[in-house]
Predict the structure.
Amino acid sequence: MDMTPLHVARSTQQRLNANLEARVPSARASLNFANRELQNEVALREAAEDALRLSRNELALLSQQLIQAQEKERRRISQELHDSVGQSLSAIKFHSSAPPSCNVQNRHGDARPWCSERLDECAKRSRTSGPSRWT
């Protein structure tokens, strides 16, 4: 066998190349596995971002529906208070402007307690139906 430095170098090179070639399939398999893991992670992250986007959209829609429901309830309460106060004021006006011949005060006595009760009732409705219910 020829043991010249050139021959020794070629032999060493061939052995190293064979060793590297033997390690290539294992390294390729490891890289393929790492790539699949990264692709899975990217897919999971994209799915999470889609779910978050959907959740934000649903939250915005629910917030909008809540505001609309609150506004509808406020309009209903406002109309109810308007009607109640209007009726009470009409009744007070009727009692205060009735001609003496109707004898309204004699029938109901002094109208001041009755008027005071109507005003207290309006104030109570206003307090119990006001914006404090929404906070």
